[in-house]
């Protein structure tokens, strides 16, 4: 039975049309359904709302601790220790104002002008942006659509004497793949051999569909995990994107100090708002049930959407193991990613993200990305519209 938290009545459309930006309801033409930025259409868990209300009602908003609220650091360390990997020290965790900010901070901490960072292709544009904002150049390790794997055999050829870091997105946006323990081990061994830091983005690690299991660099033995800087977020699993909150986990005291310096929290020019940290603490401590329900809801929608997309002419869609993102191959339709995005926006009145170089690198070509973190009703409406548009496109081609 569908959870009442995520049923068709639970999408607050009016509020979303006022508050959901970043290619979503507040930014699109009326009548268009946005399956764009990865941001749920649902209100957050009751416990988070209550905690924010209580704190705000008390009316004191003084400076918080530079290194972040101990309650959040402890809650995160405990959560990561019990749920994912064990042995996490709260003193190595730094809350910052979003996962994106954690990526930029880590890049600034470990990269200098003219350094190089290896990233995967395709991958979320934040990796490239974080590297280039730090003055570094990127080299891309491609994905092989035939095998469904990254070409890790090509990594050695990408290394120069300026390579300092490799960025890994696990679970992977936009491919919806989990990086396997074998792949993680290969990447960690490669990083160790070439003395590279690993920027490890685990923002999606709570959105994993059974029977698949999440593996982490932190499952590997030392020294393989000793150069791993891991970031977590609260936007994807808990719906807190607008509160701009994330955490960064440093592998040791030296790395932590570098990150601390790069973050500017000690000068108060950086850092996360106390209210956002209260929300994140509550999310971690009390809202696991909400995420479990959410993932159950998403699991059903994933199967529905993949089946519907694969029945549309010219579209081929793999089923994601994790994330609420679909990345269908549209090359069989005769349209490229940008043209398809325009076509769907105009004809189907559905907004998607094009798999173009700006968002994902050259490896995204011939794909579009759809976010399905909405109600079944809205998703089915969007898929119905897409189906009609894709059939009429195919007819006009014949
Ligand atoms: C892989 C990945 N990393 C980082 C982020 C940024 O998350 P936040 O909103 O917490 O900055 C996103 C958002 O889509 C993402 O997909």
Description:
The protein has helices at residues 13-19, 46-58, 70-84, 99-110, 126-133, 155-158, 181-193, 253-263, 274-286, 288-310, 337-348, 357-360, 376-397; strands spanning 33-34, 93-96, 116-121, 137-144, 149-150, 163-169, 197-201, 228-233, 246-249, 325-326, 350-351, 353-354, 368-371. The longest helix has 23 residues, at 288-310. It folds into two domains: 4-45 and 288-393, Aspartate Aminotransferase, domain 1 (Alpha-Beta Complex), CATH 3.90.1150; 63-286, Type I PLP-dependent aspartate aminotransferase-like (Major domain) (Aspartate Aminotransferase, domain 2, 3-Layer(aba) Sandwich). It is α/β, with parallel strands linked by helices and 398 residues long. α2 runs antiparallel to α9 (274-286), α4 packs across α5 and α10 packs parallel to α13. The chain contains 13 helices and 13 strands. The strands form three sheets. An eight-stranded mixed β-sheet has the order 2-9-8-7-6-3-4-5, with helices on both faces. It is globular, with a radius of gyration of 21 Å. The model has no long low-confidence stretch (mean pLDDT 96). The structure holds pyridoxal-5'-phosphate (PLP). Pyridoxal-5'-phosphate (PLP) is lined by residues 38, 98-100, 124, 126, 169, 173, 201, 203, 233, 235, 241, 246.
